[in-house]
Structure formats: structure tokens, C-alpha cells
Amino acid sequence: MFFVAGVYPKSYTYEYNRAEICSSCGKYGRYMVQGHCNVFSFFFIPLFKWGWRYTVTKSCCGQTCMLDKDLGDRLRRGEDVVIAERDLDCGHARTAGYTGCPSCGAHVDPEHNFCPNCGQKL
Q1: What sign for the dihedral angle of Cα 20, 21, 24, 27?
Q2: Cβ neighbours around 77 below 10 Å, total
Q3: What pLDDT is attached to residue 93?
Q4: Which of 53, 60, 71, 101 is the most buried (most CB within 10 A)?
Q5: What is the pLDDT of residue 22?
């Protein structure tokens, strides 16, 4: 008998349409909110999703920050949420000493050219 099963990373983009003033560059911009998880599929049907984490990319300067997990879960469920600066962790953002993937937010060694978690080119 032949079974087809696999685990792979998956990203989802969520609608967030509020203009914000960026604390990094001081310009108006929008937040692009993404949810990232691991998916187990069986015969190409996704069965389980786990390990949710959320990133916010600022349109004004391109900085990527981690979003508070509880707030991200609420946004994923379709609730109307407001993202404040205190809900963001920009400590891993792409600056000098870059240590975070702009796609999935995973911590990456500075010498890597590709993210070991999602394969995104850095």
C-alpha cells in the first residue's frame, strides 16, 4: 500500500487596512500581516496546522516585526483588531545584524543566504 503524507510550512496573508505612523521611519504606512504555521497533509489534504506565529511588514520602510501571538490568533479568526506599536517585537528586524527572515520571521544566522525554515532568499 502506498501513502502520501508530508509536513510543510505555509503562510497566510490577512487583511489589515489601517494606516499607521511608523515608529522606525516616522512615515505613514500600512501593515502587511502574515500568519505562518506548519501543516501536516495526508493525500494532499491538510489535516493539522500547528506552530502559529505572525509577522507584520511595514510598507513604508519594509521593516518586519513579530506580532503578539494572541492578537494574531484573533486576527486569524476574523475579529476586528487594532495593532499598536506595543504589540510588535521588532528586535529581529532586517537591520545591520539581521537575524530574522522577512517571510516567516524565523531566526537566521547572518551568513545564510536562504531561510532554513521556509527557503525564502534573504
Answers
A1: positive
A2: 8
A3: 43
A4: 101
A5: 83
CA distance 115 to 110: 10
Map grid coordinates 506595543 to a residue. 86
Burial class for 82, CB neighbours closer than 10 Å (0-12, 13-18, 19+): exposed
* Distance between CA atoms of residues 7 and 117, nearest Å: 12
Task: For the chain of 122 residues, list the mean pLDDT of each consecutive stretch of 10.
Answer: 82 89 85 94 91 91 90 93 89 52 70 77 74
> 71 by DSSP, 3-state: which?
helix
